[in-house]
Amino acid sequence: MFDTLSDRLTSVLANLRGKGKLTDADIDATAREIRIALLEADVALPVVRAFISQVKERAKGAEVSQALNPAQQVIKIVNEELIAILGGETRRLNLAKTPPTVIMLAGLQGSGKTTLAGKLAMWLKKQGHAPLLVACDLQRPNAVTQLQVVGERAGVPTFAPEPGNGVGDPVDVARRSIDEARRAQHDVVVVDTAGRLGVDEELMRQAADIRDAVQPDETLFVVDAMIGQDAVTTAEAFRDGVGFNGVVLTKLDGDARGGAALSVRHVTGQPILFASNGEKLEDFDVFHPDRMASRILG
Ligand code: GDP
């Protein structure tokens, strides 16, 4: 098990209570402990560095308070900075002025997109919307069926290419789904797209073509929290290849400490909207920056 950051800082700063300002030596010792804690949480190194220099700046000016011991005080600063970086308040979903709102999901294969599509559809339905799922992952065998299955569980219909017409063109399916949404009065369309095991150009081009065809109100990058600091390169590739304005973290029920959240947020500047934490459709919530901050700090 990891020591919590709180334990570590308590031992580093044990003798400081009531001594006025933190000295540079105290701050350096503190920074080392924060660095270890963040690396253990699998935050990418450049992100750790940027974060620590920010915390150091704040710690330098801080008076040692009467109410909190120095360790608690540093933890408070670290926690506040983490929450700020992770997005402060949770951002709500952008809804189109003229329906349907289009939400497109992009990410690596296995990141949990199809499962998320079902979760999001069920959540939207509970919020009083009438969503339509759209199957644009025509690469992976069974992806369409998998989406139909989660759609049935969520009680939401799925728009998919007609069987027997070959693989089908995902861009065409995406385009036609918008007409179908208007016809059948669905106010939100959730588009599942193909993902490969690694980032590849063809995948990016296809996702960008779908994006151009449906002009999403939200393009959500879906990322498995278990991939830790690899999230940085993946996020950069999707940012450059497709672009996105929101992030969904999946598999938070695993033992990942959450470094991916901080890394993706820091590198792309885009907010994390939702958290997926299990295989069942109910295992889903809006993202809470404060909970993630506690998880990262251990
Ligand atoms: P896709 O390839 O991006 O569409 O990913 P899938 O939705 O097919 O998910 C890949 C695997 O991860 C499946 O076995 C899912 O059941 C599982 N999965 C998806 N989301 C979660 C999650 O939040 N927690 C856990 N433990 N498993 C998940």
UniProtKB/TrEMBL annotation:
UniProt keyword Hydrolase present: yes
GO cellular component: signal recognition particle
GO MF entry, a single one: GTPase activity
Reaction(s) catalysed by this chain's protein: GTP + H2O = GDP + phosphate + H(+)
Record keywords: Cytoplasm, GTP-binding, Hydrolase, Nucleotide-binding, Ribonucleoprotein, RNA-binding, Signal recognition particle
Main location: cytoplasm
Function per UniProt: Involved in targeting and insertion of nascent membrane proteins into the cytoplasmic membrane. Binds to the hydrophobic signal sequence of the ribosome-nascent chain (RNC) as it emerges from the ribosomes. The SRP-RNC complex is then targeted to the cytoplasmic membrane where it interacts with the SRP receptor FtsY.
Protein name, UniProt field: Signal recognition particle protein
Parent-protein residues present: 1 to 298 of 511
